[in-house]
Write a structure and sequence with these properties.
The structure is a single chain. By secondary structure, the protein is mainly alpha-helical. The chain has one domain. Helices cover 79% and strands 0% of the residues. The protein is built from 15 helices and no strands. It is globular and about 60 Å long.
């Protein structure tokens, strides 16, 4: 019977945390790395096997990744969850002259956009996850899908060039808005408590201002586009196709800036990944988890830390309008082609 040791758990945990947030497919790497290393790794870490401890381990990684994303965006999630429950009260007792199911304001609209966008991939995951995993999670196919993921990212960037000037102006406008609000609060005496606390509050205020401005633009694409963006995640059931990458590109093609598309992708990914982990929690608590729960805890801890740091890096990286998804595309093209050739000849 295959097993999962701490070395395997640590390496895969770190890779999962990084590749789940980077647009380079965590599932693709989870399939390719064991196949390339070979030997015991290929036996222990076979994601397409029907009864493998690796499946229980991946459940723990999914939960850790989702929690890291929720922690990073905790202020946004508090705002979104509050707005969702407020919208339920509005739906139950609508004001005269308003439509019964009409969310009010940016936060309520964003909350319902996330819910609507989650429905297609949720249904597809329940119906097709096992089929996709057992049929398509083969190393050679995964390498080909990873190469295709690179083409998708590269194609999205080429098509997005037409809006590059507008995107740059948008970033500058966001920065100016945050700076204006910061100066207004300083002038109003809103930053008491010394320079250090003032700097921290100024940074938090700037982040909050930029987040609100981004959410206003995201909600401007409408519910139908949100449904389309959510449906695009179904392609990520194919190992090698990145969930965040496909949503970013789809968002860019619908007129969102790279930064806004990435933000919506991250907010959308958290509940999807968490739900996928929770639905499979029985694998971890059942017989498949016997003998590897320590490894699961170890790998999940590393995964959560790596996911948080990867997300922090990506948010900063994409905050510069001059930075693109092209480096990730090149990586996918090289890794996909290289893996395909290596696996085909060995």
């Amino acid at each position: 019977m295959s097993h999962l040791n701490y070395a395997e758990a640590g390496v895969i945990g770190l890779l999962q945390g990084i590749t789940e947030l980077f647009p380079i497919s965590s599932l693709g790497h989870a399939v390719l790395i064991p196949a390339i290393v070979g030997g015991q790794w290929a036996q222990d870490l076979n994601v397409s096997a029907k009864e493998s401890p690796y499946l229980a381990y991946i459940v723990g990684l999914h939960v850790a990744t989702a929690l890291a994303m929720i922690i990073y965006f905790w202020r946004d999630w508090i705002r979104i969850v509050r707005a969702f429950f407020a919208s339920l009260g509005h739906f139950a007792s609508p004001e005269p002259g308003t439509r019964r199911f009409q969310p009010q304001g940016t936060d309520q609209t964003l909350a319902w956009m996330i819910i609507i966008a989650t429905i297609p991939v949720g249904l597809a995951g329940l119906a097709l996850e096992h089929t996709f995993r057992t049929i398509f999670s083969k190393p050679l196919l995964t390498a080909a899908f990873l190469f295709l993921n690179g083409l998708i990212l590269l194609g999205g960037e080429r098509l997005r060039r037409r809006g590059a000037d507008e995107e740059a102006r948008q970033v500058l406008a966001d920065q100016q808005l945050a700076a204006d609000r910061q100066r207004a609060m300083v002038a109003a005496g809103g930053y008491g408590g010394g320079r250090h606390s003032s700097g921290q509050r100024a940074a938090k205020q700037e982040q909050a201002s930029l987040a609100v401005a981004a959410d206003q633009r995201v909600t401007g694409v409408g519910f139908l586009s949100a449904l389309g963006l959510g449906a695009s995640q179904i392609l990520a059931l194919l190992p090698g196709i990145s969930r965040d990458g496909i949503v970013m590109v789809s968002g860019m093609l619908r007129g969102l800036s790279r930064q806004d598309a990435a933000r919506f992708s991250f907010l959308l990914s958290a509940p999807v990944i968490l739900a996928a982990g929770v639905l499979k929690i029985g694998d971890l608590t059942g017989p498949l988890g016997n003998g590897i729960r320590g490894q699961v805890l170890f790998g999940s801890l590393l995964c959560g830390i790596a996911a948080y740091l990867a997300l922090k890096f990506l948010v900063r990286y994409l905050s510069d309008a001059s930075r693109t998804l092209t480096p990730f595309a090149i990586y996918c093209l090289a890794a996909g082609a290289g893996s395909f050739i290596y696996l085909a000849v060995t």
